[in-house]
Design goal:
Elements: H1 7-13, E1 22-24, E2 30-32, E3 56-60, E4 64-72, E5 79-86, E6 90-104, E7 118-119, E8 127-132, E9 139-146, E10 154-159, E11 168-175, E12 181-186, E13 193-199, E14 201-211, H2 225-239
Parallel strand pairs: 1-3, 2-4, 3-5
Antiparallel strand pairs: 4-14, 5-11, 6-10, 6-14, 7-12, 8-9, 8-11, 12-13
Helix pairs in contact: 1-2
């Protein structure tokens, strides 16, 4: 089952209680999840590991280009969840995702050539990226149908709509339930080939931030209970898969 789209709706309707916080992560415009250390029994190299079982990562965006690099590999790593903060005096104007950066774009031949990789999820089961705020109408933007190009054999670049997102803390969820990069190997039970997951799907998210005219000096907006609920609920449900 795909993860439910409206995380804030779940947090409200299920009365989720939180005794946790957002963890500020040092950030200067680029972060790769491979740098994350193991914690609370969670694996190294995963956004969801930051802060352990209960807490959620928060990155304060800088003016200009902000990049986040990661990988998802279902069923062991179905999704990545973290939050970003936009400071007062700044505005998020656009976002994009480069999906499948490790898909080499090698065309399928029979038998498959060495290095062939292809995404294994398509259509309704393809990955989606949700960017949300803590409100009764949480969606800021959604990018759905991430399935690469050339039948999932090569990377795909997708832009958000034009944005005008002001000061606040926002949740980013990349849901890639069941998604992997697969190849084809000889069928051990007979003639032909069978699909086999080989690695995760790599991606790069980009957020573009501009200073407002006059750029008034401000302080971080206090993190709301609703947003913590939203992010933690996402992580806990995904970890139970």
């Amino acid at each position: 089952m795909k993860f439910k789209k409206s995380l804030a709706f779940l947090a409200v309707t299920m009365g989720f209680q939180v005794n946790a916080a957002l963890v500020d992560v040092p950030y200067s415009g680029f972060f790769d999840e491979v740098s994350v250390a193991a914690e609370d029994g969670l694996s190294a190299g995963d956004f969801d590991t930051i802060g352990g079982l209960d807490d959620v990562a928060k990155f304060t965006l800088i003016e200009g280009v902000n990049e986040f690099v990661g990988s998802v590999w279902g069923p062991t790593d179905n999704a990545d969840v973290f939050t970003v903060e936009i400071m007062s005096g700044y505005v998020l104007t656009s976002a994009s995702i480069l999906w499948g950066t490790n898909l080499p774009g090698i065309g399928f031949t029979y038998p498959p050539v060495s290095g062939y990789l292809q995404q294994n999820t398509y259509g309704a089961s393809a990955a989606s990226w949700y960017f949300e705020e803590s409100s009764t109408t949480p969606e800021v933007f959604t990018v759905s149908g991430l399935e690469g190009t050339q039948f999932g054999e090569a990377m795909q670049s997708v832009d958000s709509p034009a944005l005008n997102v002001m000061e606040g803390v926002y949740s980013s969820l990349l849901d890639a339930t069941g998604t992997c990069a697969q190849t084809y190997v000889p069928d051990p039970n007979g003639v032909g080939i069978v699909a086999q997951c080989m690695e995760g799907i790599d991606y790069k998210m980009t957020f573009n931030v501009e200073a407002l005219p006059g750029n008034p000096v401000g302080v971080p907006e206090p993190t709301t209970l609703g947003l913590i609920s939203l992010s933690l609920l996402a992580m806990r449900r995904l970890r139970k898969r």
